[in-house]
From TrEMBL:
One of its GO terms (biological process) is GPI anchor biosynthetic process. It comes from Microterricola gilva. It is found in: Endoplasmic reticulum membrane. GO terms for cellular component: membrane. It comes from the Bacteria. The keyword Membrane applies. Keywords: Endoplasmic reticulum, Glycosyltransferase, GPI-anchor biosynthesis, Membrane, Transferase, Transmembrane, Transmembrane helix. It is a multi-pass membrane protein. GO terms for molecular function: alpha-1,6-mannosyltransferase activity; GPI mannosyltransferase activity. Its main location: endoplasmic reticulum. The chain crosses the membrane at residues 33-56, 129-148, 155-173, 204-228, 248-277, 316-338, 345-361, 390-410. This is Mannosyltransferase PIG-V.
Length: 418
């Protein structure tokens, strides 16, 4: 009734166009939270798909497609081909070796849940690989947006929570959520796990972690977050009771996550007979930058900094830049906006950042590896200024185009994989 009265008032006092816009605005505000999230998501996909189609129309021949590929061909380039190989042929029992006897790039670097889910959809629906892969990614991205709102509404007001979702949907790397990559599915599982953690529904975390840990590498980082969560609850049990049943469940799920964090490494070792099959496969991707070196925890960022800055500036500048980045990140974690996100989200953000610092070699896919830090968008969503919020969305779309040009589009012998 209120909706019709507002619309009627608008029609009588304004032009038909403005009245129609007012009616749409009223309907939007009176709609349930999930409808508003879906509206934001659909609008973001229209914008992002337009950018992708523009870039595809000028894409030249490349290792994956011919010139000016259609959307689905363009959306399944790069690592999408590895997932297609896994869906069609599985994992190799013999590891490829280069001329020097080092393990080369192979399918063991990519975990099985996403390609197997796509294969299941292909079997059930009869869809080819490309549309099935894109459909899974888009569906998972929508699910993530819905879960992200439920996470944000626990720490922010409704308007800011919805704007955080908008920032997520229009983020610079959001095109990846409609490509043949596992990121959308992983973010969905991560958002579900974080929501369950915030609600302290520890028992339900077991199946979620089991699937999440073999979708993208995450088990060890989430185990650290869970362990810190247990410690925090223990030390604050005076003002927030921590019953024995919850202690046992929380500690058990933390241990389970740690086990799942090495499960894929053990699976690769069991199939290939090489205990280092997974880690040496991962290292193969960074050999183009620094040659073949063993993975030593907490050294890759320093190695990368020296490589990107150049040894001609001396061995001190690269490590100094990394130390400054660490200090800046640590300081950010204690700003009022980030503290407002609550303890559990901050523990995940810190744990995942530490995991990246320990094992990841920064290069062109760095921004993709930062996507699991998406709860930080909640800190950006707090200010209410319309100019500020509109500016952030515009910047997000502009950076989408920049990332598509640099990371996704292929220009000859491209060395900037997404």
């Amino acid at each position: 009734m209120a909706q019709r009265q507002l619309a009627a008032t608008a029609t009588g006092t304004r032009s038909p166009l403005r009245a129609a816009l007012t009616a749409v605005r009223v309907r939007y505000r009176l709609s349930p939270w999930w409808a508003r999230v879906i509206a934001v998501f659909v609008l973001s996909r229209l914008v992002t798909t337009t950018l992708v189609l523009i870039l595809a129309s000028v894409q030249g021949p490349n290792p994956w497609t011919g010139a000016s590929p259609d959307y689905f061909s363009f959306a399944t380039m790069w690592d999408g081909r590895w997932y297609q190989i896994i869906a069609g042929w599985g994992y190799p029992s013999e590891l490829p070796l280069d001329a020097e006897g080092h393990i080369g790039e192979n399918a063991w670097a990519f975990m099985p849940v996403y390609p197997m889910l796509v294969k299941l959809l292909m079997t059930v629906s009869g869809l080819p690989w490309a549309p099935a892969a894109v459909l899974i990614s888009v569906a998972a991205a929508l699910g993530t947006a819905l879960l992200f709102y439920r996470i944000m509404i626990r720490v922010l007001d409704a308007g800011s929570a919805l704007f955080a979702v908008a920032l997520f949907c229009f983020a610079p790397l959001s095109p990846l959520m409609q490509f043949a990559y596992a990121e959308s599915l992983y973010l969905f599982l991560l958002a579900l796990a974080l929501l369950l953690l915030m609600e302290r529904r520890y028992a339900l975390l077991f199946p979620v972690i089991a699937v999440m840990a073999v979708t993208r590498p995450s088990g060890l980082a989430f185990a650290l977050a869970l362990g810190l969560h247990v410690l925090y609850r223990w030390f604050t049990r005076g003002r927030d009771p921590f019953p024995m049943r919850e202690r046992v469940l929380a500690a058990s799920v933390a241990l389970f996550s740690a086990v799942m964090g090495v499960a894929w490494l053990l699976a690769a070792a069991a199939v290939t007979g090489n205990l280092m099959a997974y880690t040496d496969t991962e290292v193969a991707w960074r050999s183009a930058y620094i040659g073949h070196q063993e993975l030593l925890p907490f050294t890759p960022w320093f190695q990368s900094a020296v490589w990107w800055i150049g040894p001609e500036h001396g061995p001190w500048l690269g490590p100094l830049v990394v130390i400054l980045l660490i200090a800046g990140f640590a300081a950010m974690m204690f700003t009022p906006a980030v503290r407002r996100l609550g303890v559990d989200l901050r523990l995940w953000i810190a744990s995942y950042a530490l995991y990246l610092l320990a094992v990841f070699f920064p290069q062109s896919s760095t921004f993709r590896l930062l996507m699991p830090l998406f709860p930080l968008l909640g800190a950006l969503a707090v200010p209410r200024s319309r100019v500020y919020r509109a500016s952030l969305l515009v910047v997000g779309v502009v950076l989408q185009w920049g990332w598509l040009l640099i990371g996704w589009g292929v220009d000859g012998q491209d060395w900037t994989p997404p």
